[in-house]
């Protein structure tokens, strides 16, 4: 018997474009080529960076490892508690009451998938809202979990490159009860434009009034403002307001550990007889999907989060990384403005995070890539840390020339 596909799934165009862009970069033989595609932290010399404290913690974990026994379905309990604490602060009472609990997952993407499966299978949710634009993997993840109604709420004004807060409020106010709302906490991907605290408060009020289900996605805690606590403010606010929520945490970016796939799915809810039922249902999903999570990367991060000396070294290193991102943003804006690049560029320094969204057309992207050998994710999302003193002027010139040629209809 031969294997034959009986139904062709929908293509995820942007995801395919990113893969194509990465392949094009690999095939490009130009010495000028620059990779600004994926959100990984690069050092000033352009190389992928691994935090020294991570190397230190890894070695400590290796020396302490006596065997490679299976973890439980929920993972390492101390890790999920430390992960939840990183966001919410002191949760000792709620952890003991089990109104806050977590599941160790395979990365932030794994946490989103487990959460989506749970919401569809056991809460019978069929409608999900994402920001427009959003991370490319949000939509396919929820579609694969069975969500039938995939909707978007307005988020980003392309012309002014600013937050469409009125659009957010209006679209969520019209969302039907029991809809799941994906909320990127900070360093919004791909725009890096985040709501203010007052704007978040109104979003929380709407979600509460409309009886919507908030599902936070936090992958860049600390990268937006440089402050781990500040960047988690909105989740703490929802918690203080007594709003039940789910949160997918990724540790790839903030620990520069991308291939270890460490994540946490946090539940925060009011006291209920259903807590044990929820835990059991989520456990069933995990058991059928991958049975139990991996150990090494999680133990490494747990070591850092629970050892004061390592934690201080990590937070100091993290502060240096964020400081460099802010400096790059200032320098890049200045370079663009000095060259007279068409448009306003204040948004680059008005916001923080790992990305800048140029919002190029497909023709502009093709020109940018072919003539300047600079590779970014569609529609022009560039990794800020890929810029450095050796290439920032070249990239600014390429952006400027691409936009000027578009104005003259040289690029249609």
Short description:
The chain is built from 16 helices and 13 strands. With 412 residues, it is α/β, with parallel strands linked by helices. The protein folds into two domains: 13-50 and 322-407, Aspartate Aminotransferase, domain 1 (Alpha-Beta Complex), CATH 3.90.1150; 71-306, Type I PLP-dependent aspartate aminotransferase-like (Major domain) (Aspartate Aminotransferase, domain 2), CATH 3.40.640.
Query: What is the terminal-to-terminal distance?
Result: 50 Å
Name the structural class.
Answer: alpha/beta
Q: With helices defined by DSSP (H or I, 4 residues minimum), what is the helix count?
A: 16
Rg, nearest Å: 22 Å
CATH class membership of the largest domain: Alpha Beta
For the biggest sheet, the summary is:
7 strands, mixed
Query: Any guess at the CATH architecture of the largest domain?
Result: 3-Layer(aba) Sandwich
Regions with pLDDT < 50 over 5+ consecutive residues? none
Please, what is the average pLDDT? 92
Number of strands: 13
How many domains make up the 3D coordinates?
A: 2
CATH superfamily of the largest domain: Type I PLP-dependent aspartate aminotransferase-like (Major domain)
Strand content: 5-15%
What gross morphology would you assign? globular
Order of strands, widest sheet:
2-10-9-8-7-3-4
CATH fold type of the largest domain: Aspartate Aminotransferase, domain 2
Family: Belongs to the class-I pyridoxal-phosphate-dependent aminotransferase family.
Domain Aminotransferase class I/classII large: 32-398
GO cellular component, one term: cytosol
Subunit structure: Homodimer.
